[in-house]
Structure prediction request, 472 residues.
Amino acid sequence: MKVCMLTWEYPPRIVGGLARHCYGLARALAKLGHEVHVVTLEFPGAPEYEVDGVRVHRVKIELGHPNFITWTLIFNHFMEKRVAALSRQANFDVVHTHDWLTTPAGIASKNFLNKPFVCTVHSTETGRVQVLRNPDSFTIDGLEWWMMFEAKQVMLCSDSMKAEITDHFHLPPEKVNVIPNAIDASEYDRDVDKGAVRRRYGIRPNDKLVVYIGRLVPQKGVEHLMSAVPRIVRQHGGVKFLIAGDGWSRSHLEDMARSTGQGDKIRFLGFISDSERVELLKSGDALVIPSIYEPFGIVALEGMAAGVPVVVSNVGGLSEIIEHDKTGMLAFKENPESVAWCVNKILSDDGYSRWLTQNAKKRVEEVYSWESVARKVSKVYERACRG
Amino acid sequence: MGLRGYSMPEEIYFLCLLHNVGATSNERSLTLDEIARWTVMDAQSVKAQLEKLVNTDYVQRSFREGSERFHVTINGIRKVLSMYS
Prediction:
């Protein structure tokens, strides 16, 4: 099949899980024999067109506007133009868009190509902001509804997401497909000099290392890890915390870290490269994902593949990925005491930690492979094309 | 001291504006006056916001044709995208 995939994030334009998902899926679909064209946005230093198993077309945004929603409509227009130009060379069988950001281009392409349109919903505005309060949020919520209304098939990454979406958008269950995220577990097989990694971040050999990787935005619940820090330090005096990622609540979280009285033990790293990500995960003693809202939580899979014990909050997709006391630990949502209890248990018991990581690694290799996900997505394409 | 009710810092909102108008590379950098016109802010306020963003490496300052210009860095782009991703 010839697939036209639209996404606003694609490496090296990486912010969160969306870019990683599109990259892994597009390459896996290409390996199955599909001709995959990814239409995405420009990024400094990235070529306008490249072929890497997948044909990647980066669209230049030739106009700007201070309002974010207007800006997204403008870049969608340039994406539509690129799809129209491509359609003269490639007779696409299906248009696949990811999240609301590329909805207008996806729907326009569906109509002018007269081809089936499918979408993947990675998260929703109601989930991200918890309550729709401002005009932008209502607009985004509306675009999400429009995308799913127009789509022949809708793909989601977890059962919790299915429940959320069928309820909020009144979506017919028969057009909803739950297909989990995946990772390339082999990326985590490489040897890492943990001592060197720890030295780079000023961690002494015998210090325990707790890691967070993700965006620094309220839905990620990082403040609950910050609040848990004093309770963890009381039991493990030498513990250090590395917070990797960036986002609009970073400065507030840095203030909060200082206010715990343990600011010298907490270091904010900002955005890190994929290579540093693997090194950090493989060097940590615990990975904490304290999200308030998480449709999936791909970083949990990365931690499982890297062999670091994982503590996640008992929400959304995370509670479906992690089996408590077997492949990781589930902490109560928005509960620093529970986060601290789980982290302390892992840092105190090497045997237990080893057992968790062995189970987790096995689980991730068995269930969350890109090949398996691409086969399921192919079936969705076939269903959409059958009508 | 949680994040409930915590609103976006003003400089991040400003960074978002700068990104959305397209000042995302050296070639597309804007002068203080151009930014003031886009954002409908006075030059002094613009300057104050830009200083904060330059200090945190989200905006880069450059000089071209005798004028001071500003554009969002890769870290700045990622910061903006993190709000909506």
User: Anything to note?
Assistant: The longest strand of chain A covers residues 35-41.
